[in-house]
Inverse folding.
């Protein structure tokens, strides 16, 4: 529904371009009849004008790439619809230079027809015109197809390189030849696990089965030729990279990752890192890497990967300074400090005992705890706990096999690797438990002592007290007597009681009474921890306690 809200004006494309001009005052101008954007400044050495365009909904493409070092003009159509030939004709006449006009055209039928008609009209008026057809989309490659591959991600690469080449005085034929070479060296593949919102209704343009993704999706709302079960990101990106390398063989690549509208910068940066690692693993060099949303499909949840085989003859054009929405690309060199100590022990042993059990407890309830946290916080409690446990497992070094050793491993992970507030506070509890259970002959007494010391540390650091709706509301009642089933039951009841409290500490305090009715996830996590701990040290059947704790998780 978000896209529908943003596109509810009578002329959303015109309004968007007004805003673009206002935010680039002095550099861009907008013609409203017919509609196009053109730059007001360009390099004096430029003798050929670059004109491109396509349907709206792909922002910042194409209007965002107008400017010094980029396009001279861009013609936007309606949503996912090619511009009409008059837009292209008038825009080209407005920006034409003595050396002619080069059209950069994505391979879609409407775009090809309208740019071709505009070219005929321009030639009839004595202007020299050439074109570069971008057809890089591997997802639309079909044997025997007369239409050919769609034009997608490589469009930005072509526009950047040709913009710089035009600025040093390349002729029309030179730009045409260079553009065709860059297209031939490029392939793109896109995936999505949710469609964009149709502007007219706000509803998804197509359905994607939960757990699946469209593999080879288009940028105009087309579903892909195949739907696959969504693999882990590493496996997905590795597969995509392998297919792109096979289609556009090279030893050295530009790596260009673009979001499709609803994919976050955090995700896109992870994707570019995984893609670079995948290329290095098959002995390919990444000369430059770019990640961001540059060719969107409204608010589609997905991304594209473009690989362009590098030619040293045009590489300086890729790195050239310019003044458009694309950041000036940089060489793909980075200083990354690896954790040598953790890397050396990672996978050295597979822990069992309490560490393994608690890891299973928190990982299996991650989503439920996140959902609970979303009611009153930022929805990351389950992920933080699961991440802390995963780190403890990954960095586990065999010690003496005792409960204290497992608790120490968990404490180190939570104190050193889990951010936020709850993670480190749990680390203090685990640290106290590890110390109290070392060489203990009476485990229940030692656990009670450790929990008591942990409670004191948490109160000292965080400042919370019982009744503030925090993990303390489960921890405090658990230390009032011997550590046994009754103590764990008291913790579960304490966690359940937090649903009636208005938070005075933590993020839940920001939402006030809106969190009432839902238990505090930190308190619930304490209840889960203590249930697992009792199960481990007593060996008793604690099925009823698990049921009670999980009932609070689900509430």
């Amino acid at each position: 529904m978000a896209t529908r809200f943003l596109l509810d004006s009578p002329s959303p494309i015109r309004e968007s371009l007004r805003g673009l001009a206002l935010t680039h005052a002095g550099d861009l101008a907008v013609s409203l009849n017919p509609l196009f954007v053109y730059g007001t400044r360009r390099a004096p050495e430029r003798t050929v004008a670059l004109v491109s365009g396509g349907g709206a909904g792909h922002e910042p493409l194409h209007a965002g790439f107008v400017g010094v070092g980029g396009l001279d003009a861009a013609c936007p159509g309606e949503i996912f619809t090619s511009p009409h030939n008059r837009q292209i004709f008038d825009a080209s006449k407005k920006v034409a230079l003595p050396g002619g006009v080069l059209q950069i055209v994505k391979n879609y039928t409407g775009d090809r027809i309208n740019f071709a008609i505009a070219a005929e009209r321009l030639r009839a008026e004595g202007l020299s015109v050439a074109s570069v057809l971008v057809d890089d989309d591997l997802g639309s490659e079909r044997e025997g197809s007369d239409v050919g591959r769609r034009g997608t991600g490589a469009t930005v690469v072509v526009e950047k390189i040709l913009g710089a080449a035009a600025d040093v005085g390349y002729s029309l034929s030179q730009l045409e030849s260079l553009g065709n070479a860059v297209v031939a060296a490029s392939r793109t593949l896109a995936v999505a696990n949710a469609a964009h919102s149709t502007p007219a209704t706000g509803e998804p343009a197509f359905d994607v089965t939960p757990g699946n993704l469209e593999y080879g999706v288009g940028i105009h709302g087309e579903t892909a030729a195949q739907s696959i079960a969504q693999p882990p990101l590493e496996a997905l990106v590795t597969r995509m990279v392998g297919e792109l390398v096979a289609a556009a063989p090279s030893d050295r690549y530009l790596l260009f990752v673009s979001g499709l509208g609803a994919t976050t910068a955090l995700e896109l940066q992870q994707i570019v890192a995984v893609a670079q690692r995948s290329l290095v693993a098959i002995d390919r060099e990444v000369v430059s890497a770019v990640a961001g949303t540059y060719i969107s499909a409204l608010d589609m949840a997905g991304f594209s990967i473009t690989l362009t085989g590098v030619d040293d003859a045009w590489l300086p054009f890729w790195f050239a300074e310019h003044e458009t929405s694309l950041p000036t690309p940089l060489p793909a060199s980075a200083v990354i400090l690896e954790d040598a100590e953790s890397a050396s022990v990672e996978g050295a042993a597979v822990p069992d005992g309490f560490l393994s059990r608690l890891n299973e407890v928190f990982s299996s309830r991650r989503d439920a705890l996140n959902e609970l946290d979303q009611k009153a916080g930022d929805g990351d409690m389950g992920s933080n706990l699961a991440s802390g446990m995963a780190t403890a497992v990954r960095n586990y070094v065999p010690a003496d096999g005792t409960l204290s050793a497992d608790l120490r491993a968990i404490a180190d992970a939570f104190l050193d690797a889990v951010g936020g507030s709850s993670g480190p506070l749990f680390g203090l509890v685990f640290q106290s438990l590890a110390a109290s259970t070392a060489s203990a002959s009476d485990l229940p007494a030692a656990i009670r002592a450790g929990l008591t010391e942990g409670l004191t540390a948490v109160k000292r650091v965080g400042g919370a007290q019982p009744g503030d709706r925090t993990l303390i509301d489960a921890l405090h009642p658990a230390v009032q007597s011997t550590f046994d089933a009754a103590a764990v039951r008291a913790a579960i009841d304490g966690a359940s009681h937090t649903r009636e409290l208005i938070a005075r500490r933590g993020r839940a305090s920001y939402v006030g009474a809106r969190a009432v009715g839902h238990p505090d996830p930190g308190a619930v996590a304490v209840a889960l921890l203590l249930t697992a701990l009792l199960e481990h040290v007593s060996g008793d059947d604690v099925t009823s306690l698990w049921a009670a704790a999980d009932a609070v998780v689900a509430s």
Notes: The first strand starts at residue 28 and ends at 32. The CA atoms of residues 533 and 539 lie 10 Å apart.
